[in-house]
Amino acid sequence: MDLNLSELPAFVERTKEALSPQDHAMLKAMTETLTFVAQELLSHTTTIARLRSLLFGHKTEKTSSVLGERTGSTGGAGASQRGAKRKKPGHGRNGAAAYTGAQKVKVPHPSLHGGDACPGCEQGRVYALQDPARLVRITGVAPLGATLYEKDRWRCNLCGDVFTAPSPEGVGEEKYDEKATSMVGLLKYGTGLPFNRIEKLQANMGIPLPAATQWELVRDGAEDLAAAHAELIRGAARGEVVYNDDTAMKVLHLTPEQRAAAIGNDPAEERTGVFTSGIVATADGHRIALFFTGARHAGENLADVLARRQQELPPPIQMCDALSANTAGALDTILANCMAHGRRKFVGVADNFPVECRRVLETLREVYKNDAFAKKSALSAAQRLQLHQTKSAPLMTDLEAWMKEQLDEHRVEPNSGLGEAMRYMLRHWPQLTLFLREPGAPLDNNICERALKKAILHRKNALFYKTLNGAHVGDVFMSLIHSAELNGAQPFDYLAALLRHHDEVSLAPADWMPWNYTAALARLQERQDKPPPATP
User: Fold this and answer.
1) Which one of 65, 116, 198, 412 is separated from 5 by 20 to 30 angstroms, measured CA to CA?
2) pLDDT of residue 81
3) What is the average per-residue pLDDT within 191-213?
4) Is residue 201 in some structural domain?
5) Per-residue model confidence as pLDDT tens digits over 256-279
6) Is the pLDDT of residue 42 over 70?
């Protein structure tokens, strides 16, 4: 069959009435991809390597990998000839200190005690070393263990009464404890294991755990976690810097009424997509991650979060890429755009324009080095701004002038890949360079991109959510798990503590955040250990 690509748009339009909105959007996306690939194949400048990178992305976008080992001068950046990257020393194993969750067992010496005669020289006396010898022993167990208690039962041969031994102290009557819910939530929403895979793994370990039971555990657990999740949202609303972005998601049973309730009843609105929005906020020195799944874009979800912001607080800095979906909604923010997105456009055409792209990438590398130095030196926001204004501003000024010169003097074709990359950078230059004017403004949106990997991992393994309620449960667990990770807390212990003490959490949720919940546990334990007052 001879296929005329120019006829594809009309063909797709004719199928609009016969297909559902979701199927029509999928067909439109496939035809646009086919047209793009066909046009790239017909282009004389397209190589197999470029086509592969366009379809599947780059494995790494480091300047040394994109440009090769040789590095030249960068219009003021002052880069020197660099050799191969030195390999870090070490064998790659984890030391004993890394096993913070391991059970510790004290092993005394079988024959020696402090002050005993040395069995070697028989003259000195032995004393204990402060640093004991450590042996790590790792055993394989099921993710969820089980203990079967067989309680004795006695029956009277005369009256027939049955007497059952009481349960051991500390063992409740419920089959699943809070640690079981914590583990299922961490496996499902923290590491991307679908319920059916967990079910098969548990069955192979002789401890069955049906997928339906797992869902009931996390569904009920999300209700107990609601107070802590709501406090995370309130904390994010106070953030000094907020990052946001979207990734595609699929919800099988998303009704038109639910979609209309999310995006409004405007008949002109033909939005058919479903997204998971990632929002990361830095507030009071802590990082908070939030996830929202549904028909709304990241900007709209961020607007809902910032609607809880106190009016006396100044507008936060918002970091995102330049898509309009990230700024949708009533947002009162100071907008910054992601430098990594602008840089990536030069990475994509580096093979065709190596000299020009080298100048851009190596200049940006020096800027990122300055930012890394500020982070390593723990500079304040004002000190970091001064550093960038002193060292990075001249580099960025020269780069802007050079790109304008290339386009104005027609040294670069505006519609070429390089021209499009330059025009993108210049079009968003004020937002891309906010870090030169505003204290605390970040360079890129990478922290939000990394957060969205949680949702992407779930999408790759579980493929979809069944309902919006299921998506909300996933959002709650992902938000708490990743917020714990960002603040150096153990997500498993954190979830278990919230579930075990959900009544106390609902009374004072601000005391049970990932960065301070251990103090709340200590206070609670102190109250429990305190003896009751003596009666007169």
Assistant:
1) 412
2) 43
3) 94
4) no
5) 888 888 877 655 456 788 999 999
6) no
- Contact (CB, 8 A) for 244 and 318: yes
**Spatial CA neighbour of 477 closest among 181, 158, 240, 165:** 181
Q: How far apart are CA 536 and CA 211, in angstroms?
A: 56
Q: CA–CA separation, 309 vs 65, rounded Å?
A: 43
Q: Chain-centre distance of CA 24, in angstroms? A: 31
Does residue 44 have a pLDDT over 70? no
Q: Residue 1 — very low, low, confident or very high, per pLDDT cuts 50/70/90?
A: low
What is the pTM (predicted TM-score) of this model? 0.80
- Max CA pair span of the chain: 109
Q: To the nearest whole percent, how much of the chain has pLDDT over 90? A: 55
C-beta of residue 279 within 8 angstroms of C-beta of residue 235: no
Closest by CA to 276, choosing from 239, 249, 299, 301, is: 249
Residue 310's domain is classified under what CATH number? Answer: 3.30.420
CA 85 from centroid of its chain's CA atoms: 28
Residue 520: C-alpha distances to residues 70, 81, 223, 491, 505 (Å): 55, 54, 21, 16, 9
Token digits for 447?
A: 């922290």
pLDDT tier for residue 53 given thresholds of 50, 70 and 90: low
Helices marked H in 409-490 — which ranges? 417-427, 429-432, 446-462, 468-486
* Phi (first) and psi of residue 334, to 5 degrees: -95, 110
- Other C-beta atoms closer than 10 Å to the C-beta of 58 total 15
Write the DSSP string, 286-350: EEEEEEEEESS-HHHHHHHHHTTS-TTSPPPEEEE-S-GGGG-SS---EEEE-HHHHHHHHHHTT
State the CB neighbour count (10 A cutoff) for residue 439.
15
Give the whole-angstrom CA distance, residue 114 versus residue 131: 15
Residues in the chain: 536
User: pLDDT tens across 371-410, in order?
Assistant: 999 999 999 999 999 999 999 999 999 999 999 999 999 8
Q: Residue 77: its pLDDT value, please? A: 41
Has residue 119 been placed in a domain? no
Range of the domain at 489: 224-265+273-338+445-523
Residue 399 near residue 100, CB atoms below 8 Å = no
pLDDT in tens, 206-256: 999 999 999 999 999 999 999 999 999 999 999 999 999 999 999 998 888
Looking at the structure of the chain, the number of domains it has is 1
List the structure tokens of 294. 């549904």
With CA atoms as reference, report the closest residue to 281 among 314, 233, 226: 233
CA 533 to each of CA 92, 525, 528: distance values in angstroms, whole numbers, following the listed order: 55, 17, 13
- Token pair of 476 as six digits: 């709650």
C-alpha distance across the termini of the chain, in Å: 99
**464 inside domain:** yes
Please name the residues in contact with 471: beta carbons below 8 A apart, sequence gap of 6 or more. Answer: 249, 251, 276, 293, 294, 465
